[in-house]
Request: fold
Amino acid sequence: MTKRSPLALARKLVNRFDIFTKQLMDETKERQKHTFPIFHFTSLDAAASILSNQTLRFTRAIGHPRDNGELTAGLDIGFDCLDKLCLSRSRASKLFISKFEDALRRGFVKRFFVGICCFRDESESENHWKEYADNHRGTKIGFRSADIATPSNARVYPFKMHYDEEQIRSVFERMLPEAQDVLESQIVGQLDRSAIGEFLEGFAVKVALCLVEHSFQFKVKKYSCEREVRLMLIFDRTQQPPDFVQRSDRGEYVELPIQRDASGAFAIHSVQVGRCAPISAEMRLNELTGPMGIQVTRKFGN
Reply:
């Protein structure tokens, strides 16, 4: 029997880590499952783009110019758990921390696109009309489904946000020791200098992906009134065409087609303009929704 190299054996350990993290994500998806319809509050121009192109825009989350910690609070908890866990003095662990920090803070951000599109799981929200729908001059679009035509080598996750810090901390406290077990194994310890560098760089990116996937399902408790549902898009930029990611004055974004539901019906089932929206805008949107059999309504009162 051919003896496997330490690097090949180390990769087998990573495969076990992959199985564990998939199970962890399946548990999270089940716990964070949302129901339809869901509602997207946005400006009139953005609504016209969604309706005419049948696309949704995913705005880059990491490094977003408007990020005030709302988007990345989960990452801070992940780093806190990592700092508390990785006290080992092993050569592999020290290298891992270095590679991990670099992978997430530099390499991961440059290489991977993480974008989000936000919804609400209830129809009415005075705050959403004010904050996201141009202070009642914008639009609320209701979706009966949200299946996205996803390109190869990209993933879209739908989930209902949670606002429980202990929940996300417990996820990281289960996941990160599994990563530590890989690093503390005798097999990894036997890797030579060049092999361990290659191994740890790849493993760090893998752990970073898991960390980000879970982090963006969490927001701090003060935002719980938003009852947010998110679609999260993740892909490796090196595996997509250079013009796949577009840029505006608000940052980078990707637009992806909305697919019809299983019965062939349009995913969009309702469109409403705010009480301060001009009549001309309502008429403009009605021209776009007519082929879908949707009559645009107007919100009156508070």
